[in-house]
Amino acid sequence: MRIGDLAQRCCVSRDTLRFYEERGLIRAQRSANGYRDYPEDTVQLVLLIKTAQKLGFSLGEISQNVAELWQAQDPEALVTRFIEDKLALVEARIDALVELRQALRQRLQDRCPLTLKGVPA
After folding, report:
1. CA–CA separation, 35 vs 29, rounded Å?
2. pLDDT digits (tens, 9 = 90+) for 4-31
3. Which of 70, 96, 65, 94 is nearest to 82 (CA)?
4. Counting Cβ atoms within 10 Å, is residue 6 exposed (0-12), middle (13-18) or buried (19+)?
5. CATH class of 1-55
6. Is the pLDDT of residue 109 over 70?
7. Domain boundary assignment for the chain
8. What distance separates the 2 farthest-apart alpha carbons in the chain?
9. 6 vs 41: CA distance, rounded Å
10. DSSP, res 113
11. What's the pLDDT tens digit per position in 45-84?
């Protein structure tokens, strides 16, 4: 399948597909005239990449997990684990942000918000 067909089927730009190829996320065979020719299963892979991005996975994370996913005996269980790990990370970040918000609110109540607590002036 040519790059234009793949782009249309996946609702992405050709530049996006070229970028994914540069990052090693997808592969194309080159025909004699130099055109990219993608295997049919690339559609599923590109859609997986887009979904993973929407769920907050970086392209680096996706590239690390794609090879493992294609070789997995139970891909659904592996995807579930990836999502659970990402959720735990997001929840930890939310907890840290809540603590930061509380610290900032407390500082706003102080006479001088930049004074270090417990350090003599």
Report:
1. 8
2. 999 999 999 999 999 999 998 999 999 8
3. 65
4. buried
5. mainly alpha
6. yes
7. 1-55, 72-115
8. 76
9. 10
10. T
11. 999 999 999 999 999 999 888 878 878 889 889 989 999 9
